[in-house]
Amino acid sequence: MSRPTVAIIGASADRSKFGNKSVRAHQAQGYEVFPINPKGGEIEGLTVYTSLAEVPAERLTRVSLYVPPAVGINLLAEIATKGCDELWLNPGSESDELVAAAKEMGLEPIVACSIVDLGVSPGELG
């Protein structure tokens, strides 16, 4: 079986930010991680994609948002087009408007911390 895949939208090279901790936590749990950041570059040794459309995976196991709700709303169409089994709205990325818009597009948003879901405490990631 192939590894589960995750796109981390709002991935960061700053190891103190949750967008970086999520990259590391998912890597440690065996996920194939696709960091997304409009700046591109490299994070934790991985190529950073400037948009979800660039990610080579056809469909993703999960998409995890680390961007403000106003940014997330603008990404929903791209997320729905790519397809994912789980859409994680991490603390600070969620809003009632975003949740409602995601549901309208047939997505099932999970409003919780995707790092904690992996059984990892973000505080342990330093």
UniProtKB/TrEMBL annotation:
It comes from Bythopirellula goksoeyrii. It holds the Pfam family CoA_binding_2. Residues 1-93 form the CoA-binding domain. This is CoA binding domain protein. PANTHER family: COA-BINDING DOMAIN-CONTAINING PROTEIN, CYTOPLASMIC PROTEIN-RELATED.
